[in-house]
Amino acid sequence: MLDPRDVADRFDDVKNALIRRDPSWAEKLEPVRALVESRRASLKQSEAKAAERNVASTEMAKADKKSAAFEAKREELKLLSGEVKALEKAVADIEKELEAQLLLIPNMPHASVPSGKSADENQVVKTWGEPMKFAFPAKPHWELGEALGILDFERAAKLSGPRFTVLYGDAARLERALISFMLDLHTKEHGYEEVLPPFMVKDSALVGTGQLPKFADDLFKTHKADPERAYDLYLIPTAEVPVTNLHADEIIDEKHLPLAYTAYTPCFRAEAGSHGRDVRGLIRQHQFDKVELVKFTTPETSEAEHESLTRNAEIILERLGLSYRRMLLCTGDMSGASQKTYDLEVWLPSEGAYREISSCSNFGDYQARRAQIRYRTEAKGKPRLVHTLNGSGLAIGRTLIAILEQGQQEDGSIAIPKALQPYMGTDVIRKRARKI
Hints:
Blueprint: H1 4-9, H2 11-19, H3 25-28, H4 30-62, H5 68-102, E1 123-128, H6 141-148, E2 151-152, H7 153-160, E3 166-167, H8 169-188, E4 193-194, E5 200-202, H9 203-209, E6 220-221, E7 233-235, H10 240-244, E8 250-253, E9 259-268, E10 287-297, H11 302-319, E11 324-328, E12 340-348, E13 353-362, H12 366-371, E14 373-376, E15 384-385, E16 387-395, H13 396-406, E17 414-415, H14 421-424, E18 428-429
């Protein structure tokens, strides 16, 4: 969430930054500025009336309780107290409306982010590895998986509907191997602390990271079975939500920063509006696994930590020998909460194209203001908002896709990357007959 004081005091700067996302923000910001000014005026009135009330209270205390002056002051105090109460309510109502408006406003893009309207204007920062070329026609992962008997889309649809998959045998083992490999690398070499959070969260956590209120249609909301529970629970769309909110409403001692967490969780997304996109295979599923990276930093170190986090995700791809590229997203392709995002895109031979496998973002203080995550530099110093960062390190299903497609052999078998072989117990996936 943006600082409302910035919107009012640096209106042109904020407006010009958001126009880089979409020109329509020039008009949409005006009501917010008006609300900020209205709040300031009402707060000033409220404080002035409160001061008058305090003076009247003091004067009444000095007056003879049997005198006419005492009665007059008591009536004046009643009147002033009612006016203060009304003004305080007006301030509270304005603040409620102001917060509702601010929750819908995206973050200001970092100055280094290129302006653009779509993914076509993203910038290639680097490439690693040569795109795979085969002496035979490359098959898509769903054909490879079905032929090997390790991916089953029909039975998954019978169980849960479209956009679900059952993994058998070596595919299930590969999923588990990837999770362990990534967590081991991030904890043992990159210095992250592993955490296993709940897979369901309150709506307040989703507000904190920016999924609510704007993206409610993309979430799976559970049925409130307990009538005494005063809140709803949602299946998490990413581990970013529970892990970032671990420190909601907390003040962290600066000596503990940066904090770096890694977490494996399943993720659940309704994929609203994605009808007709990636209907085959594992690319766009309602349920998928992911290893997430989350950092809490000071404002002064967040840019360097963003580069470090992105590099940590890249190392996974390099250890697996998977060709990829790093993209700097333009203003029109970033998430609303992000101020700067790198996407890592892995090469998929069947498509002859790169596809996103990780999105690594620096949110500045945008999420921290929503979730009230702060730090203090001294014991009695004024708390400051942290900067939050996160990225996929990596999306497990899409990594599995890349291994199947980049590792495919002419006979339909799959070569397993050397780094994964100790976790898999084999160097190749071959077709194995299942009983049924």
